[in-house]
Amino acid sequence: MKPESQAAPVSAIDLNPFLGRVFAVDIADPVVLRTFADRVDLIFRHARTGVLVHILVVTVTAYSMDAGYNTRDAWTWGAVMIALGLLRSLAIELYLRGHAGLTNPVRALIVFYAIIGITGLCWGAGGAFVLPDESARQVFFIMMLSGTAAGTVTTLAPFYSAQILALCTSLLPLMLRLAFDGSNEEAIMAAALVLFMAAMFATGRNTHLAVVSSLRLRLENVDLLDSLRRKSEELDATSRAKTRFLAAASHDLRQPLHALRLQAESLGVSVAAGTRARTIIDRIGLSVDAMERLLNSLLDISKLDAGVVKPQVVEFRVDTLLDALRQEFGPQASAAGCDLRFLRRGDWLESDPTLIETILRNLIGNAIRHAPGAKILVGCRRFGDAVCILVADTGPGIAPEYLDRVFEEFFQTDNPERDRDKGLGLGLSIVSRVATLLDLRMEFRSVPGRGTRFIFIVPPPPAPRAVTQPSAPMPASRSLAGIAGSTVWIVDDDESGRLALADVVAQWGCETSAAASAAELLSAGLAAPDFVIADYRLREQTTGVEAIRDIRAHFDDAGLPAVIVTGDTAPERLRELAASGVHVLHKPVQLGRLRSIMANLMARAE
Question: I need a labelling partner for 82 at 20 to 30 A (CA). Which of 107, 402, 507, 521 fits?
Answer without folding.
Answer: 107
